[in-house]
């Protein structure tokens, strides 16, 4: 599945390029519980068509009711939902939840086209929206930062897709690729083994046939990328993992038991000049400990860990596979 922000912005670009009236809504503040995080965006066309989401649906319905058929040219406007308990209930917000939106009316088609073009080229963009008149300025950014709103402008970042590179086209890869796609990742699967590639059945995942280390080198992993080795074959996994550790990938891991993970680390130190420090970012055994044994359950545990790392969640040690198995064995003893 494509990056949702890019889908929203591309749709809004097309509407405005066709001369259709539309607005862009951005979640700029939340208090208490909120169904969508700060930075979430939604495009609304004057006929009621919507792309994206800022809530569970009720706020979208209210915006459609307010602006259907009449979206004027005017400066950006802040609107708040859920100030009272009654209003929070009306708009389907969790208890105590409040969110604030910035509405940009009739955004400029040329600026939207430039923003989409830069995002489609895989670059990170900082977008400045002047509150006085809605003027938008774009500039390249090296790293994303939190959305910022003051009395003069909104500053937010839009980035390229999150990407996942899987080494191996086996069963676990099929389940993991499927979950990654519907979680918004662009997925590339690498396997030089014809017997595995021949049965691959995940539409939307790009399948490549080169040697994994060459594919990793050409993949250009960045801070929005993860690399996961799933073949259990050192000839395919080891060099690819070493190359991945030289990138800024936010998650690098390899499938295997605790014994296999220890053997892999020893092998990389003894034969490939690695050190415990250089292997510190290598995750293994990968996944969260949920007692998984089947390929789909293992894929669920791995995807959960990837998403936790992506979202900056610090997981307790007992949720890691090695620690979790040890605690589970002690509880049964």
Please summarize what this structure is:
The chain is of the alpha/beta class.
SSE arrangement:
Layout: H1 4-17, E1 22-31, E2 41-45, E3 50-52, H2 58-67, E4 77-81, H3 85-90, E5 98-105, H4 109-120, E6 125-130, E7 136-140, E8 148-149, E9 153-158, E10 162-167, H5 171-182, E11 185-190, H6 194-197, E12 206-208, H7 212-219, E13 225-229, H8 234-244, E14 251-254, H9 258-272, E15 282-283, H10 295-310, H11 321-332
Parallel strand pairs: 10-11, 10-13, 11-12, 13-14, 14-15
Antiparallel strand pairs: 1-2, 1-5, 2-3, 4-5, 6-7, 6-9, 8-9
Domain XdhC- CoxI: 15-82
Protein name: XdhC family protein
Domain XdhC Rossmann: 164-306
Q: What descriptors fit this protein?
A:
single chain; 333 residues; alpha/beta; Rossmann fold; XdhC_CoxI; XdhC family protein; MoCofactor_Util/Proc; XdhC_Rossmann_dom
What can you tell me about this protein's structure?
It is a single chain. With 333 residues, the protein is α/β, with parallel strands linked by helices. It has 2 domains: 4-158, no CATH class; 162-284, NAD(P)-binding Rossmann-like Domain (Rossmann fold, 3-Layer(aba) Sandwich). It has 11 helices and 15 strands. A 6-stranded parallel sheet has the order 12-11-10-13-14-15, sandwiched between helices. Strands 3-2-1-5-4 form a 5-stranded antiparallel sheet. Strand 10 (162-167), helix 5 (171-182) and strand 11 (185-190) form a beta-alpha-beta unit. Helix 1 runs antiparallel to helix 4 (109-120), helix 5 packs across helix 10 (295-310) and helix 7 (212-219) packs parallel to helix 8. The mean pLDDT is 89.
């Amino acid at each position: 599945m494509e990056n949702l922000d890019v889908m929203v912005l591309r749709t809004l670009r097309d509407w405005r390029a066709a001369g259709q009236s539309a607005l862009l809504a951005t979640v700029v503040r939340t208090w208490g519980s909120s169904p969508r995080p700060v930075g979430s965006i939604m495009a609304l066309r004057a006929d009621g068509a919507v792309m994206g989401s800022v809530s569970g649906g009720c706020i979208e319905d209210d915006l459609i009711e307010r602006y259907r058929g009449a979206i004027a040219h005017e400066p950006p406007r802040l609107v708040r939902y859920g100030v009272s308990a009654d209003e929070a209930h009306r708009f389907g917000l969790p208890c105590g939840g409040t969110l604030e939106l910035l509405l940009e009316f009739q955004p400029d088609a040329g600026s939207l086209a430039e923003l989409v073009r830069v995002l489609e080229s895989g670059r990170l963009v900082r977008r400045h929206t002047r509150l006085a008149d809605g003027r938008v300025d774009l500039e390249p950014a090296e790293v994303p930062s939190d959305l910022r709103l003051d009395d003069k402008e909104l500053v937010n970042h839009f980035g390229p897709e999150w990407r996942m590179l899987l080494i191996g086209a086996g069963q676990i890869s099929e389940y993991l690729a499927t979950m990654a796609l519907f979680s918004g990742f662009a997925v590339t699967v690498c396997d030089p083994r014809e017997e595995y590639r021949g049965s691959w059945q995940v539409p939307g995942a790009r399948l490549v046939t080169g040697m994994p280390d060459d594919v990793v080198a050409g993949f250009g992993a960045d801070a929005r990328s993860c690399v996961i080795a799933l073949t259990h074959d050192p000839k395919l996994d080891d060099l690819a993992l070493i190359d991945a550790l030289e990138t800024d990938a936010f998650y690098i891991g390899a499938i295997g038991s605790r014994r296999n993970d220890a053997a892999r680390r020893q092998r990389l130190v003894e034969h490939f000049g690695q050190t415990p420090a250089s292997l510190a970012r290598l995750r293994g055994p990968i996944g969260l400990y949920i007692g998984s044994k089947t390929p789909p359950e293992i894929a669920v545990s791995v995807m959960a860990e990837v998403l936790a790392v992506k979202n900056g969640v610090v997981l307790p040690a007992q949720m890691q596979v090695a620690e979790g198995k040890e605690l589970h064995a002690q509880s049964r003893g």
